[in-house]
Specification:
Layout: H1 15-25, H2 32-41, H3 44-58, H4 62-69, H5 72-81, H6 85-97, H7 105-114, H8 117-130, H9 135-141
Helix pairs in contact: 1-2, 1-3, 4-5, 6-7, 6-8
């Protein structure tokens, strides 16, 4: 159970949650209620421990298993809740840059303006490492933030 005061529970055991999630996505059908229960009972830190334990103990990737079984907005929400914040924002920047109808400047502004310099640096590092290009080169090639310096990114 998640600590009530927001502190990190170092004694947290991810194993039962891992088993519950595996059972929820294994076989035919998905037990979405069980996924919701696991998310509701854990903190972001504990969900990262579950994600890591899931891979280490089962040899499978939790985000892949969840992504294969879920769809729509619910899938997007569940995957977001199991991601590190810099991973989530890096993926959202990628989505915003390659938005179906052009660049989603509102989403870009929401991400860039509301993050601290440290958070932007971590997101940039994630983006540059996991994507096939750098964030700065993509923003420049798409002419995003015209009139502003891209040096901050």
């Amino acid at each position: 159970m998640a600590p009530k005061n927001g502190s990190i529970n170092e004694d947290f055991d991810p194993e039962p949650y891992t088993q519950r999630l595996r059972k929820a996505v294994k076989g035919f059908g998905t037990d979405e209620d069980e996924i919701i229960n696991v998310i509701g009972e854990t903190t972001p830190y504990e969900r990262q421990r579950i994600r890591q334990y899931y891979h280490n103990s089962l040899g499978r990737y939790l985000l892949t298993d969840l992504g294969d079984d879920l769809s729509g907005d619910f899938k997007h929400l569940v995957l977001a809740l199991f991601k590190y914040s810099n991973e989530y924002y890096g993926d959202e920047l990628h989505r915003a840059i390659y938005y179906t109808w052009g660049t989603d400047e509102d989403a870009l502004n929401d991400i860039v303006i509301t993050r601290s310099n440290e958070e932007i640096a971590l997101t940039k590092r994630y983006f540059d490492y996991y994507k096939k290009y750098t964030l700065a080169s993509e923003l420049n090639s798409k002419k995003v933030f015209k009139g502003y310096s891209n040096n901050s990114i």
